[in-house]
Amino acid sequence: MVNEVFERYITRLERRGRDGKTLMNARRTLQVADEWIQAQGIDPLSLSAEDGEDYFAHLIERYSVGTCRVHLVNVRAAYTYALSRGQVSCDPTVEIELPADNRPKPQRRQALV
Which of 62, 75, 85 lies closest to 34 in space, CA to CA? Predict the structure, then answer.
């Protein structure tokens, strides 16, 4: 990954001893974001709120709302961390709102007695 915002956040997760699944999910989702940012020719340190909206509009066309929520959690956490460290001047995800997930909830199975 080229994006130093994301690299520093992953390093933070590693230092905090997060489990392998958490690290794998964070790397995977942040890699997708990193590739999009690079393809747009945007400096990750200067990602704007409008860029963030464009990115999630791009994602919502390709992934389920639930998957987009996982991406949002990781990208938002990375930029919140970068903002707290003075690495960036704004969080480009702060105003992102994803649509409701209207898929029916699975029925709970009753326990056999």
Answer: 75
